[in-house]
Amino acid sequence: MKMKTIRLFRGILKAVAPPPKLTVSEWADRHRRLSSENAAEPGQWRTDRAPYQREIMDSVTQAGIEKVVVEASSQTGKSEVVNNIIGRFIDVDPCPILMVQPTIETAEDYSKRRITPMIADTEVLTTKVSDSKTRDLNNTILMKVFPGGFLAMGGANSPAGLASRPIRVLLCDEVDRFPDSAGSEGDPISLAEKRTTTFWNRKLVFVSTPTIKGASRIEQEYELGTQEKWCVKCPGCGRYHFIVIRDIKFDHQKHESNKRTTYIVDDVWWRCPSCLDMYDEYTMKKQPAMWIADNPEAIQNGIRSFRLNSFVSPWYSWKRIIQEFLESKDDPEKYKVFVNTVLGESWEERGEFEDETALLERREEYKADLPDGVLVLTMAVDTQDDRLEYEVTGYGRDEESWGIEKGIIWGKPDDKNTWKDLDDKLSRTWHFADGSGLVVACTFVDSGGHFTDEVYRYCGARLQKRVFAIKGQGGSGVPLVYKISRNNKYKLPLIMLGVDSGKTSIMQRLKIGKPGPKYCHYPVQEERGYDQVYFKGLISEKQVIRKEKGKTVTAWENIAKDKRNEPLDLRVYGLAALRFLNPNFEALERRLKQVSGGVETTPKPAKKAPKKRYGSVKRAADY
């Protein structure tokens, strides 16, 4: 037999032979080398460095498994898991592969920073995939061709890259950053999945950090799967637990200097929720661990899903996690990033307010009508069929706020006596402890409901007192003070408010844990109206995600059993009145000092040596 014929038969046998029984982790441990360009620990890959990665990688080649979902925080090695999957298929089971990133630009960046170095530093890949810098037209930044298949890189925003040739292995990275539609073609993941339908042995891999609860695609995919968590064995009782931040205890120092706060974390422990014993990071990271499924039946549907947070990462220390928690907990936007990227959890706007208890406990004693720090007063009025509800709120520098009085005026809005009682509140002077005082600077009255004419008449007669009719407009993206309209029969100014923006702002402020910019103070005196009923109404709504005409939109939904949300509406109106006024707080402060005879209304606290503080985290909130 001629040598040419022998080579031909060898090629045929190789083509039809089943791929070697080599799992992804086995392939990586044998062949993969990490590049010094993008790896903190370059050199030979070792799955044992982060043992939770083994089961994730090997589930891709597990019999009967079609889809693998990874919902994980940053710096858990999830990108390298994806790269190992790609490398293994290129080397031992070549086929058409598509990797989808959120955009074409991120796909190009990923190819340059991740894929190209992996190919260059892993010998078994270098011999099969030529360099994109060469003149080989088959290999570009977004296309790598190798014997038996190719790796295409695409953006979820580009339908052209998602709906062409058939694909056997589909990898979608950072799916929570995907647009709702690939151009005008629809859901990008669905488009990409359709390219795999001709393969009986297709593989789908979805990876991402979560984002907004209800809109998080990775969270939805995770819940359809086995819902496996990496659980660590307690050295004391022997039970396995998923380490979460509510079980973390720590001590730290807090230093205040030049209006800046510096935290120093001394010690961090995990407290077992079963036996309550406490152990440090070193002990827990040496303990046995395993994946435990909350929904094991999903394996019958061929879907395995995994969840990870930074507590198990060898590249993220517990002290660093708590440091980032302390530095972000008082800033809602920073805290949202912390929840997503460090805790690996989706963000829910209502956040830590499981009930009104935390807000009730923050109430404080006011020594006078107005606490020191208040510089301007606003009033908000909500009209109901049988009453008016109102709130007077004080604001100071950086929009720090003080609830002054929340009350109800009983009587129908078509009764003049009802509005006369409101006049009494409007004309009242509220006093500081030194005898100086303030009156309400601006009032917003809701014109919705069944008594619009009465509201217009009342406001029209009091424009010189800055009493204005308002109307709320729902929808995300509408500014709090939207526009001023005179399109009414009285030709009076009607101020349009973006109430959804206002509710988001109020909820973020309620989460601020210490006095200062945008913090919300409340009085403990019951006669001022800030009781349990008030706080129930203040947190009566939560932000939800809906699909409308193919787009994801956010909306506020009333979840209170009694549907009483007037306290939240009033806070939004009061903040809008402040924004409408746009006061110069420095000028107001100077004027108030002159009126009060130069008395410093906000004395500076004496400096004290920092104390060691002890903390724990409840529901990933402030402590």
Automatic annotation (TrEMBL):
Residues 39-283 form the Phage terminase large subunit GpA ATPase domain. Pfam families: GpA_ATPase, GpA_nuclease. Signal peptide: none annotated. GO terms for molecular function: ATP binding; ATP hydrolysis activity; endonuclease activity. Residues 605-616 have a biased composition (Basic residues). PANTHER family: PROPHAGE TAIL FIBER ASSEMBLY PROTEIN HOMOLOG TFAE-RELATED, PROPHAGE TAIL FIBER ASSEMBLY PROTEIN HOMOLOG TFAE-RELATED-RELATED. It comes from Pelotomaculum propionicicum. Residues 303-584 form the Terminase large subunit GpA endonuclease domain. This is Phage terminase large subunit (GpA).
